[in-house]
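Box S1 | Example of a co-folding query
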Amino acid sequence: MKHAVCAVYPGSFDPITNGHIYIAGRAAAIFDEVRVSILVNPQKRSMFSVEERQMMAREALSYLPNVTVDHFEGLLIDYLRQLKSRVIIRGLRAMSDFEYEFQMALMNRQLAPEIETFFIVTDPKYSYLSSSSIRDIFQFGGIVQDMVPPGVFRRLRDRFPPRRSCP
Ligand code: ADP
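Box S1 (continued) | Returned holo structure for adenosine-5'-diphosphate
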């Protein structure tokens, strides 16, 4: 019997950007089910809590019926095995992503040979976009409205109200 293919798209998503949404949409067109999974890493300082990141991702991806949002702690391959998933989705923006992603894919292959990593190339218009650049640009008053979904923009604005100009 053939099982429905559940693919896991892991990351920090701090916060989710239009680049992530593009990758989730491409994956959703290929796999039966896509699980966007937020990695809980207590060692890493994040701007948004796991609950906030999850809520923003759910809102932004609600138009894709076969995409769900979840979070996990610990080893990615253990999480996949628990879900009985054998597919990891990762996005590629540039050659500079490749080395890190390649190394991680090989490490996961070593740990779990049954699991496959699928890479999806971004749209060129998102190739410069990362969660960390959104956080930096926004904190210093830059315009990010067309780079993130409306719910993320709203929460960024609540967190960092616009600065007044010089007195
Ligand atoms: P990490 O914290 O592991 O760097 P992120 O949460 O930033 O991961 O991103 C998760 C995945 O989404 C990674 O595979 C990353 O390469 C990919 N990604 C991030 N931004 C983009 C983008 N603008 N276009 C395509 N893929 C992206």
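The helical segments are 18-28, 50-61, 76-83, 95-111, 131-139, 150-159. The pocket of adenosine-5'-diphosphate is lined by residues 11-13, 17, 19-20, 23, 90-91, 93, 97, 122, 126, 129-131 (CB under 6 Å).
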